[in-house]
Design goal:
96 residues; alpha+beta; Homing Intron 3 (I-Ppo) Encoded Endonuclease, Chain A; 3 helices; 30% helix
């Protein structure tokens, strides 16, 4: 992913610390995930910052919000996993 220092600065301007989470206070999509626009392209905010720090993710890998807060962009709250594992974890957390 190609990004500039100004992209990261702009990204940070949309983040607020709320307890343990770093909450995206910019635009949220219909599912509660932050959206960050870079060079006219919309990205999920948590996925964008994860890739800036850790490198590109395969398209079949999702980021599990360990804190269960979809608007959280704190890297320590995100874990790369498969969609199936993410769904399984979510189901188990709801007590099903």
């Amino acid at each position: 992913m190609v990004y500039s220092k100004s992209d990261v600065t702009r990204f940070k301007s949309h983040v607020r610390v709320a307890g343990e989470c770093w909450v995206w206070v910019g635009r949220l999509n219909d599912h509660g995930y932050g959206e960050f626009k870079q060079n006219g392209v919309k990205h999920r905010a948590h996925r964008w910052i994860y890739q800036v720090v850790n490198g590109d993710l395969p398209r079949d890998i999702v980021l599990d919000h360990l804190c269960r807060n979809r608007a959280c962009v704190r890297l320590s709250h995100l874990e790369a996993t498969t969609a199936e594992e993410n769904i399984r974890r979510g189901t188990n957390r709801r007590g099903r």
